[in-house]
Amino acid sequence: MDNDMNTDNANSEYKIPDMAPELMRGPQWLQEKRTLARDAFNSSPLPRRGLHLWRYTDPNRFMVDRASVVDSAYTEDYDAVEKVELRHLEQGRLSGLVTDLGGREINRYGVEKLAEQGILVTSLSEAVGKYKVLVEPYLYRLVNSATGKFEALNGALWNDGIFIYVPRGKSVAKPLHLLREAGRENSAQFPRLLIVVDQGSELTVIDEYGGGSHKMEKGLSYANSAVEIFGMAGSRIRYVNLQRQTSAMNSYLTHRAMLERDANMLTIILAFGGLLNKQNFGAILSGQNAESNMFGLTFGSGHQHFDCHTLQHHAAGQTLSNIDHKVVLRDKARSAYTGLIKIEKNARTCEAYQENRNLLLNKGTRAETIPELEILNEDVRCSHGATIGPIDPMEVFYLSSRGIPYDDAVRMVVGGFVEKTLKQVPDDLRERLRQFVNTRLEKI
């Protein structure tokens, strides 16, 4: 890659060279897809700042400058988290654990019993060769160069990723935990995840992203991630995305799921870390009686910047979607949320609901919320709501009048605000999330 880009110049030239080693990885069919992604990235302009989804975030800040991945350059926190999850695996609280170091080193633990049932949990680099019939029809189908310039960048430069396949009628009883670790300063990674859940099958996945640079003066770290999930007829999927990356990390993630007839998916979006974060979550309801529920929780502090977009696309009739996205901000943190409900002309008798609540804990924070509806027929039931404001002083007064100190009263109000989302999280992760929330409330 050419690394002479100045990130302060939105018109800087940045091209992926013809001989980039990632373009040569995989079988011929994959190399061709990578090359198409490279060509799309090189030929497409940078998204214009201020237009639609880039209204509040500068796209230039996600371009990679002087990026190089240093092997084994990971934070000390990684070992601690890995030990916790390995203990959960030994205790039978997980079906398996997969670690992903910078999109370059994939390790699997405890997945042997799953393999005996025909359930595949493997690296994407292995899957494209050994399981072509399961991979080629789906890889790049939902997240590709048509999705955007940064999705094309991931499509060209991902080094390795994770592939999960659940055969027809199989159930993964306990969560499967994916632990992704970013490299430290001046590193770049392009994680990719492909999940295919066949007819009548069930799967719970915790997709956790950590690591990155701790000090801006030493250099930022960068991640550009892509997630594709396919739920076949009658499947049941729970997908939890936890972003807890470090304070000098710029992170971009695109997630798309396609749900066929009678499929049901619960998506939980949890964003706590990083310096600059842009997330794109979407579900396409392509079969009748498909259902998508999304619960989101963003908790920002310091000078963090979060930009989240959700999409519920009703491509078939008699489908149901629901979004409940909560944001808590303190210090100088900022958040922007844009949610689109799209219902096609022939997708009749659909129901879609969207709610975004923003809680500002002090002056200096800022939240933006933009609900969007694109409804092409009248036989639907839709509603949306959004609020931005401080904690209700009457709630704090009520608790204080019962002898509860002011700071504790504020913590209790915030705890109640986020509890509905935390209740959706698998047990082995819930306590860690409460610790994230409590840590951010300590200095109130």
Brief digest:
With 444 residues, the protein is an alpha/beta fold.
Structure characterization notes:
By secondary structure, the chain is of the alpha/beta class. It folds into 2 domains: 69-395, no CATH class; 396-444, no CATH class. It contains 9 helices and 20 strands. The strands form 2 sheets. Strands 2-1-5-8-10-12-14-16-18-20 form a 10-stranded mixed β-sheet, with helices on one face. Strands 3, 4, 6, 7, 9, 11, 13, 15, 17 and 19 form a 10-stranded mixed β-sheet that branches. Helix 1 packs antiparallel against helix 6 (149-157) and helix 7 crosses helix 8 (406-422). The longest helix is centred in the last third of the chain and has 17 residues, at 406-422.
Q: What number of structural domains do the residues give?
A: 2
Give the quaternary arrangement of the chains: single chain
* Neighbour order of strands in the largest sheet: 2-1-5-8-10-12-14-16-18-20
The percentage of residues in β strands lies in 35-45%
Radius of gyration, whole Å = 21 Å
Number of strands: 20
Helix content: 10-25%
**Helix vs. strand class:** alpha/beta
Mean pLDDT: 91
Largest sheet: 10 strands, mixed
Low-confidence segments, given as residue ranges, are: 1-12, 66-72
